[in-house]
Q: What sequence folds into this?
């Protein structure tokens, strides 16, 4: 198991990704839907390009995989549990997104498209198109995949288990372990 997704986490890209997905989902943007769309986008990006979009690690929660640091960023926007990234980032997050009714993510500005690559935008768009209108329950069911099932609750889902769910798992595993 290689924790490549942990040491390469990009919080600037993560914030822009939250904004991008929130705009793409419009009034269906919630902490849950953003988490699931990102998970599905990350799987697609891993399958096609051999890397995660933001490099976050996923935690196996009751309603499916949750991107750990990105969820914390959304909790900062909601002033939940006195969560803090750091003073400067808290301010940037609060200037960028807000959480209404405890779950709805509302962008306060447009996404900085210079931060996202073409391949990332492609995967985000395809995932939003395919899954963006799914209900809470449908997104939960879709993301309760073998990677989630193989992980104990509230523990990190290994990148190898996520890759094992891909149609080209052997190729991706070989690629990331060669890096």
A:
């Amino acid at each position: 198991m290689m924790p490549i997704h942990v040491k390469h986490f990009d919080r600037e890209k993560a914030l822009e990704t939250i904004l991008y997905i929130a705009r793409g989902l419009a009034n269906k943007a919630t902490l849950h839907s953003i988490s699931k769309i990102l998970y599905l986008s990350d799987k697609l990006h891993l399958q096609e390009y051999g890397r995660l979009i933001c490099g976050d690690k996923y935690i196996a929660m009751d309603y499916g995989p949750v991107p750990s640091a990105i969820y914390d960023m959304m909790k900062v926007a909601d002033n939940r549990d006195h969560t803090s990234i750091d003073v400067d980032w808290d301010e940037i997050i609060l200037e960028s997104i807000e959480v209404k009714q405890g779950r709805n993510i509302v962008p306060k500005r447009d996404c900085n498209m210079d931060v996202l690559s073409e391949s990332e935008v492609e995967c985000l768009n395809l995932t939003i198109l395919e899954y963006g209108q799914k209900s809470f329950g449908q997104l939960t069911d879709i993301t309760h995949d073998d990677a989630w099932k193989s992980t104990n609750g509230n523990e990190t889902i290994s990148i190898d288990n996520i890759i094992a769910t891909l149609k080209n798992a052997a190729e991706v595993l070989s690629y990331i372990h060669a890096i």
Remarks:
- The beta strands are 58-61, 64-67, 97-100, 104-107, 156-157.
- The CA atoms of residues 3 and 92 lie 27 Å apart.
